[in-house]
Amino acid sequence: MTAPLSDDPAAGALSLALAVVAQSAAPLLLLDAELRVLAVSASFSRAFRLEPSSVLGRVVFDLGGGEWNMPRLRSLLSVTLGGGDPIDAYELDLELGAPPPRRLVLQACRLDYADADQVRLLFTVTDVTEARLQEQRQADLLREKAILLQEIQHRVANSLQIIASVIMQSARRVQSEEARSNLRDAHHRVISVATVQQYLGASRVGEVELRPYFTQLCRSLAASMILDPIRLTLKVDVDDSTTTGEASVSMGLIVTELVINALKHGFPDHRSGVITVAFKSEGGGWRLSVTDDGVGMSKQPGGVQPGLGSTIVEALARQLLAQVRITDMDPGVRVAIEHAPGDAGSDLA
């Protein structure tokens, strides 16, 4: 609906714009230099339960029961009216009596047309109440899920610690040295999985920083497996790379297996040495390696046959679309997991 127009021919140039405003599907007001309503869209009247006749000719701040009379809105419209910046997606809450308040997104711009003496503002209102409520509901659900996930992770960590304790107790009771060794290996693996899970559970959702992740993992491995830290040292040399939680789990398990293997085979007879866990990414590729300065690869025909640890590392490397490369360092051994530049699935940032 539009305000009555004069018969002055100059007003005819505005009549089409007024008609367009009146029929707009979006809630619109056309305001004059006094911020009085020249035209109102039917959608605005419906949205705010106002009779069009009660809107036309009134100052926008007097609409309804005065709920539009807000100091911040007055200030914004005054600036735009004076030629300042337009109002662009400004959000406010409008109290209409019954809670909750309506959440509105406002836009206003000064119109430029032939009659420069006649200032006009186009005022647009979008009701986003339901959208914001839905966003809040989704945020609440995500928060609840995060709390539940944290509780599950805590219980899993406790369960893994209990399992590790049971395995170690079993290792102390068995008579067979081979069975005792296998149980100890299983204990170390459970502890490492618990460490990986505990660290990732405490980290933020999203990218995992590899340096603190590997540092914490190696501290746990050293504490549980190295009885004499003066004789054997576990070092970390990692760059600033990050990766996804899924990829970091595979990398953490690879590190665990390779460190266990180095401790088990590289330093017999109380030999001293250093094991270094390193990671570097460059040009879209990356390399994760575990290097020791122990006795090195077996020179005996047949050597040491690949065991469960090697099978686990190979499988995890395939998940990362990477290759396993073993190098005799003389002394020691380096096992590297290499992902070539351009290959999919690296998940490195």
Description:
With 349 residues, the chain is α+β, with helices and mostly antiparallel strands. The chain has 3 domains: 9-127, Beta-Lactamase; 130-205; 208-349, Histidine kinase-like ATPase, C-terminal domain (Heat Shock Protein 90, 2-Layer Sandwich), CATH 3.30.565.10. 45% of the residues lie in helices and 21% in strands. It has 9 helices and 12 strands. The chain has helices at 9-23, 42-47, 52-55, 71-81, 129-173, 177-202, 210-225, 245-265, 308-319, and strands at residues 28-31, 37-40, 87-94, 102-110, 121-127, 208-209, 232-238, 242-243, 273-282, 285-292, 323-328, 333-339. The strands form 3 sheets. The protein has a 5-stranded antiparallel beta sheet, with helices on both faces. Strand 9 (273-282) and strand 10 form a beta hairpin. Helix 6 packs antiparallel against helix 8. The longest helix is centred in the middle third of the chain and has 45 residues, at 129-173. The mean pLDDT is 82.
Would you spell out the secondary-structure blueprint of this structure?
Blueprint lengths: L8 H15 L4 E4 L5 E4 L1 H6 L4 H4 L15 H11 L5 E8 L7 E9 L10 E7 L1 H45 L3 H26 L5 E2 H16 L6 E7 L3 E2 L1 H21 L7 E10 L2 E8 L15 H12 L3 E6 L4 E7 L10
Parallel strand pairs: 7-9
Antiparallel strand pairs: 1-2, 1-5, 3-4, 4-5, 6-8, 9-10, 10-12, 11-12
Helix pairs in contact: 5-6, 6-7, 6-8, 7-8, 8-9
